Amino acid sequence: MSETDPARQPDPSIDSRNTRKDTWNPTQYQRFQDERSRPFFELMALVQIRPEMRVADLGCGTGELTKTLHRHLHARETLGLDSSPAMLDKAHAHAGEGLRFQAGDIWAFARQSVSPASPAPSASPAPSAPDGALYDLIFSNAALQWVEDHPALLERLSARLSDGGQLAVQVPANGDHPSHIAAAAVAREEPFHTALEGHVRIFPILTPEGYASLLDRLGFTQQHVRLQVFGHQLAAREDVIEWVKGTLLTDYQKRLPPDLWTRFLDRYRELLLPRLQDSHPFFYPFKRILFWGQK
After folding, report:
1. E strand or H helix at 224, and its extent?
2. CA nearest to 10, candidates 229, 183, 199
3. Residue 282 has what DSSP assignment?
4. Spatial CA neighbour of 80 closest among 106, 105, 107, 99
């Protein structure tokens, strides 16, 4: 899926949010909070509510939406997992009443061995699930795109589900939009190419039919997979830059020294804006894949 040199592929056990420095900025990310939350609510609507659910939200960010999920499901316990200290600093304020937050990367969570003695959820109180516990729902909104090898990852996550457990995932699929194409083009230019050691961020997502086939192979007896375009009305085309500064461009920012990052951003602006219509408001179509399965 990635166009980078295979010798430079990241270790799939490492969530790329957790490499080098933490460039996730909660304020920048939440600048478009209403727009970013729409896919979350669409994904949450796919989940079937069961009594006393044990839930894991992978890539929980600042925690507000994880709290919404926890309350919507009337969950017994919800774990919010994220690798960004800046995001978790905000998230911890939402903890309590069965909701907790923890630092960690997604592959490490997926690779935890499931203990045969891990109890199924019951009415008895449990302050926290042990490592290797089974979950009734593994939920991830706009996080798995940062993790390599989705077939292997989803196989691991499937193994962490209880009987009848559910997997609900949303991943951006906007790699063919100028906002993403321009970033890759700048990364291939000098002096950025050398400073980035050839790295170009290409998200390793599958096609919708690829996810559907994978869910079937992994034994999900029910599934829902769709590609959906979310249309966002931004004040101007310049706001697209502010949008991707909170997500995609963080991957380049953490790999570049400050002076080169400033030059990268200037060059990105120079390359991107002529490719976008100069309209007010500016319509930003954003494609996303939502998929849900139940074992």
Report:
1. strand 222-234
2. 199
3. E
4. 99
What is the fold, at CATH topology level, of the domain defined by 6-174+202-232+286-294? Rossmann fold (3.40.50)
Residue scoring higher pLDDT (272 or 29): 272
Tokens found for residue 10: 């990241």
Q: Is 156 helix (H, G, I), strand (E, B) or coil?
A: helix
Radius of gyration of the chain (CA): 19
- Determine how many CB atoms are found less than 10 A away from the CB of residue 243: 21
Pairing of strands 77-82, 282-294: unpaired
Higher pLDDT pick, 214 / 16: 214
All structural domains of the chain with their residue ranges:
6-174+202-232+286-294
Residue tagged 């290797």 (tokens): 132
- In tens, the pLDDT along 153-195 reads 999 999 999 999 999 999 999 999 999 999 999 999 999 999 9
Residue 119 in this model has a pLDDT that exceeds 60 = no
Its pTM stands at 0.85
Q: β-strand 77-82 against 135-141: which pairing, if any?
A: unpaired
